[in-house]
Each structure stands twice: as structure tokens, then as C-alpha cells.
Design goal:
It is a single chain. The protein is of the alpha+beta class. It has 7 helices and 26 strands. The protein has 3 domains: 113 residues, DNA Polymerase III, subunit A, domain 2 (DNA Polymerase III, Chain A, domain 2, Roll), CATH 3.10.150.10; 110 residues, DNA Polymerase III, subunit A, domain 2 (DNA Polymerase III, Chain A, domain 2, Roll); 114 residues, DNA Polymerase III, Chain A, domain 2 (Roll), CATH 3.10.150. The chain is elongated.
Length: 368
């Protein structure tokens, strides 16, 4: 194998593809990036047996071939090379030579035959969705996915597509995020869960390109295509939370408040909270104001904002991070907050629509 290409393009492509590479694996080949030079282009693949990221870059190919190179080392080498054009060649002993300007590095590779076979996704469903809408929906849900949950299915976002509507749902046992939007789809009900890891990598790629996204859903895998990138991901299996049963049907108190003012107030109050002291914030919703306070073993804080609260006075405790995440990802200037007492979830929605909904479970305060 022998080819030359843009150093910058190779650096960007290898850096993105490496996100799907397992840094420590029992199989050495999946710690590497598969490089294939053929048909006038170089294809780079990273695959950790759960998510694969694949892309092509233009190259001048003198000799077709393929090799697996350690991802971390390849990315470091290419990023630090001094010239605009880089030459990569390998021989039958899997020795790879990388040249750029006056620099030259040789490293051992692995035969491409040892690379695991990628999933084949066929006979699936194509889903048409606007890239900007898709990006916003993922951002407004993926943060609420579980991390290391006892139910792996909660470590992803549930997609429900039916009747021209896409609904995304994320839950981690302490909070729930729901986002829905009308889309161009009139087929049968589609119900699947995409890992948060996959969606976070998608957001990074979408943030660096203006290309549209296309989605192809198979039985056990899903393929996202963005420009020259393809992301193949397995779907999560298991019984997802019956989230509709968790949403309070009625409220005893409600208010409409500036998202910015409430967010800043909670952030000021939460300054005294440190990681090793998981102290909740205390919120008192009363007729003309919302009082927010926090007491730890080393400090205390207090803040308040004006608000017209209808219904009962409620004193309730929350994990500040969960409340802050909900407000930061709301994307609206004002939110409607509904409460059903000190031990029921707080419900956060837009004022005039139902396109998103957040639930945050309360924390029992010591004097409750």
C-alpha cells in the first residue's frame, strides 16, 4: 500500500474515526484504525464492536492495500507532522512508513484480515428528518441518559416514530426528558433505543459540518450518514421505563418564570456545593417569589427571584445539577413549572407548547 494525501484531512478524519476505537481491548486490532486505499480514496474505520465510524478522504494512490494502525499513535503522528502532504506506505510484513516534509516515522501495523467484520444493515427503514431539528432534539434529551445504569437500555435515547411524529425519551432514574417534533414519516410504528455514546459522537460530527443527515434503521443496528461519514451503531435492547406513568397528571402549584433568571439563581446558590458533599438545594415556591437556599457543613447560600406562583406553597429539595441541566437545555426564554407537593417530581415545560417536557425527582429534605 502506498498513497499521499492532505495531512490536515487525514488528521481530522483519523481524529473523528478514533472516537469509535476501544483504547484498551482484548483484541489488538480494535485498538487501531483500519486504513484501506483503493479506487482513488482512502477509507478509515474505527470500530469497538458496538459503534463504527467510517469515512473517506481523497488521496493519490500509487499502490492499493490496507493495514491496521494503532489509533492513538496514528492520530498523534499525523497531528504533529510539519508538512501539508503526507505519504503513507506499508509492506507485506505490516511495517508502515509515514513521511511528511523532513519527518519520517516507521511503526508496526496489523494485517487488515484481523479486523472484525462490520455489521451489515439491510432491509431497513429510511427516516427523513431535518438535520437542525434532529440536532436540537438530541441535545435536549441525551444529557438525561443513565450512566452505568443497572438497566443498559436506559443508557440510550428511546426513539418513538408514528403518525408523522418523532419522540425522543431519556431517563436515568432521577430525571426524565421528552422531546417531540413533527417529521415526514407515515409508516408503521418504529420503536428503538440508540446508545448515548453514539448520539454524542453524532453531535460532534454535526457540529463541524453543514451536511444533511440520513438515517437507516435495521433490526439490531442503525446507520447515520453525514457527508463522508457513516456511523453504524447497535441498538440497545431491554424493557424501557413506562415513562407515561411517571408524568404527574395534575398539579397543585404552578408558575411561569424566566429561564435565565431561575438558572442564574440556582447556579449562584449551588456555588457552596462540592462534589464530596451532595447537598440538595431547597426551593420554596410561595405566592410572589421563589426562594432558593443551600446549607452544607462548610457554607450556606440564599437567593430569590420574583415569580407569580399559583396554588399551594411548596417547599421542595432538588439535586442542583439536574435542575440546571433541565433549564440549560430547555431552549426557551420562559418555562412553566408545575408541582404536586414536596415529594412529587417537578414538571418543566415550555409555556405555550408541549414539544418538550422534563421531570426532575425531588430530594427529601432533612426536616421533612
Amino acid at each position: 500500500m502506498k498513497f499521499t494525501c492532505s495531512t490536515f484531512e487525514l488528521s481530522v478524519a483519523s481524529g473523528t474515526v478514533s472516537k469509535a476505537v476501544s483504547p484498551k481491548a482484548a483484541i489488538p486490532s480494535i485498538e487501531g484504525i483500519l486504513i484501506e486505499a483503493k479506487n482513488g480514496a482512502v477509507t478509515l474505520t474505527g470500530y469497538d464492536l458496538e459503534v463504527a465510524i467510517i469515512t473517506d478522504i481523497q488521496a493519490n494512490i500509487e499502490e492499493e492495500g490496507s493495514i491496521i494502525l494503532n489509533a492513538r499513535m496514528l492520530c498523534d503522528i499525523v497531528r504533529k507532522m510539519p508538512g501539508e502532504i503526507i505519504e503513507i506506505s506499508s509492506d507485506e510484513r505490516q511495517m508502515c512508513n509515514i513521511k511528511c516534509a523532513n519527518s519520517e516515522i516507521t511503526l508496526n501495523g496489523i494485517s487488515a484480515e484481523d479486523y472484525p467484520e462490520l455489521p451489515i444493515v439491510e432491509n431497513g427503514k429510511e427516516i427523513d428528518i431535518d438535520t437542525e431539528i434532529f440536532t436540537a432534539m438530541v441535545k435536549q434529551t441525551v444529557f438525561a441518559c443513565a450512566v452505568g445504569d443497572s438497566k443498559p437500555v436506559h443508557m440510550g435515547v428511546k426513539f418513538e416514530i408514528f403518525g408523522g411524529e418523532l419522540k425522543m425519551v431519556a431517563v436515568d432514574g432521577f430525571r426524565l426528558a421528552i422531546r417531540k417534533e413533527k417529521i415526514n414519516y407515515d409508516g408503521e410504528l418504529l420503536n428503538f433505543v440508540v446508545p448515548a455514546k453514539t448520539l454524542n459522537e453524532l453531535l460532534k460530527i454535526l457540529g463541524e459540518t453543514d451536511d444533511n443527515i440520513s438515517i437507516f434503521l435495521g433490526k439490531r443496528h442503525i446507520v447515520f450518514t453525514i457527508g463522508t461519514y457513516s456511523i453504524i451503531s447497535r441498538l440497545l435492547e431491554g424493557e424501557f421505563l413506562n415513562y407515561n406513568a411517571a408524568i404527574p397528571k395534575n398539579s397543585t402549584s404552578q408558575t411561569v418564570v424566566s429561564t435565565k433568571l431561575l438558572l442564574e439563581s440556582i447556579e449562584r446558590t449551588a456555588i457552596v456545593i462540592v462534589d464530596r458533599l451532595k447537598s440538595p438545594i431547597r426551593c420554596v415556591f410561595s405566592p410572589n417569589e421563589i426562594k432558593i437556599s443551600c446549607i452544607t457543613s462548610t457554607a450556606r447560600s440564599f437567593d430569590k427571584i420574583n415569580a407569580s406562583v399559583l396554588g399551594d406553597r411548596v417547599e421542595i429539595g432538588f439535586n442542583s445539577k439536574y435542575f440546571i441541566d433541565a433549564l440549560k437545555n430547555s431552549g426557551v426564554e420562559e418555562v412553566k413549572i408545575e408541582l404536586s407537593g414536596p415529594l412529587s417530581p417537578i414538571k418543566i415545560t415550555p409555556v405555550d407548547s408541549d414539544e418538550f417536557l422534563y421531570l426532575v425527582l425531588p430530594v427529601r429534605l432533612k426536616n421533612d
